[in-house]
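#struct-queue
[09:14] JT: dropping the first one here, sequence first, then the C-alpha cells:
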Amino acid sequence: MHRPVLALLAALACLTLAACGGGGGESEAPSDPIEQVPEDTPGLREAVKEARKPDATSFPPVEGKTLQQIADLVRSGPQAALATSVLTTGENRFTFGVIGQDGKPIYGPTAIYVAPTPEQPAQGPFAAPADILLTQDRYKSKQAATDTDPFAAVYAAQVEFDKAGQWAVLVATRRDGQLVGAPTQVKVVTKAQDKVPDVGEKAPRVATDTLETVKGDETLLDTRDPVSDMHTDFATVVGKKPVALLFATPQLCQSRVCGPVADIALQMRAKYGKQVEFIHQEVFVDNNQQKGLRPPLQAFNLPTEPWLFVIDKQGKVTARLEGSFGVDAFEAAVRTAL
C-alpha cells in the first residue's frame, strides 16, 4: 500500500496518538482546540495559535515572479512533509508538516506557492492555517495519554491546480521573525483519473465490520486501545441519516496520524452523535498488512489511509479528507452533511 504520508511520519516519529477514552459520551467538545495544546513547552501554544490564522498578505506577493525568485526571498532550512497524495485539477486541500533541521515540527504563520516548474510564474501565496490534532483527555488512547511530545497540528491550504502533471511547491513559514522556506513537488492528476468517491457522488453501499463480522474478536475489529464503539454497519445506515465514515488503523498506520483522527472522531461524536452516525473501519484484513486491504477500502478505491468521508442522508458524499486532519477540518466536514 502506497503511503505518501510516510514522509510526514518518518519526520514526525513522535506522532503516536491512537485514542484513549472509551466510546465517548454525549458531552460538548471544547469550543477552542487551542486549549488542548500543552503549556509546559515554552512558546508552543502561542506559536500554534499564531499558525492557526496566517495572513496571506503578509507573505511576498508573486507580482509575476517565478517560483525560484520567490524561493530566493526566503531562508532555506526546514523540510516540507506532505500528508496528501491525491491531488486533482481544480481546488484541493493540500496538507503538510514543516520540519526543522532538528527533526522537530515548526509552527508559525504559513503559506504555500506553486508553479509547474521553479522557472515558471508562481501562484499564491495560499494561506495554510494550522489544524490542531489534539483532543480532550477523555478521548485520547492510552498511547496518547502517555505521549510526552505530542505532535500538535498539521497545515492545510486550499490550492487550485489548472492542469495535470508535476508541480513545484514552496512552503513558507514565519519563525522567530524570519521567513523560512521548504521546497517540494507533487503530482496532479485529472478528475477522471481520481477513482476515490468525490463530493457530490454517491458513496458505495458497502458493509463495514461489526463485532458480529469478526466473531466477537474486538482485537480484529479495532486496533485502538481501548476499542471504540464506533462500529455500526455502514450499509445499514447510509441513505437514512448522515454518516461520518473513517478509514484508519490507529495501531498499524505507518504514518502514525491514524490514531489522532480516531480520537477526534470520538470527540466529534460527543458533539454531533445525535445527528450523525460515526463509524470507524479498520484497514487491513485480520489487521495484517501482508493480507491486503479490507473490502470496504477496496470498494472506495482508497490508495492511502486514513480517509474520512461525510455522507448526507441521501447517501451522497459531502466532504472527503485524506491523510492528516485535525479538529477544525473534521468538524467542518461533519457540518457539510447537516
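[09:21] JT: and here's the second one, same format:
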Amino acid sequence: MESDARGPHWTVVESGIGALLLAATDTGLVTVAFHARPAVCEAVLEGLRSRLGAEPVHAPDSARLAEPVRQLGAYFAGTLREFGLPLDWSLSSGFPREVLRELASGVPYGTVVGYGGLAARVGQPGAAQAVGAAMGSNPLPVVVPCHRVVESDGGLGGFGGGLETKRRLLELEGVLPQPLF
C-alpha cells in the first residue's frame, strides 16, 4: 500500500546483524539505521522529519522499500555482492558526500581500504580524519559500505553500529582486515 508520497516511507527489518530501520523517499533509499529499537527509531524518524521537512510514514509494504528489503535480505544471505539501488543522497553533502560516493562505487565487496587511502582517492591525501568523520555520518551503512574502511595497520577503526557489527559484516564478506602496508 503506497501512502503519503511526500514523506519518506520507513520500516524495520531483521538482518544478520539485528534490526535495521530502512527509509526511502521517491528518489531512493535515504537511510539505514542499526539497532532499530523504539528509542533509536524515534530518534532516526525525528532526524528525518527535521532534515527532510516531511513526516515519515510507516509503510512496510511500500513499493519504495520492496527492493531495498529484498537486496539487503540477499546480501545477508550471501547471494548479493553489489547493491543496485537508487540512493537519495540528501542527508549528506560536501566532502562527506564525495567520500561516500567514492566508497559506494570504488570499494567492492570483499575488499577493504584505509581511511588515508580513501582520502587519497578523493584527492585529499591528508584528510584521513575527515574521512573517519564522513564514515561516522554515513546515512546508508551496509549499502554504502563504511564497514570496509579500516585503519592502515589493519585495526577495525570505529563504526557507528559497533565494532562487533563491523566485524560480522567483514566476516560475511570473507574479509578480516589485514595490514594495508
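[09:30] RK: nice, looked through the second one.
[09:31] RK: The longest strand covers residues 9-13.
[09:31] JT: good to know. The two ends are 51 Å apart (CA to CA).
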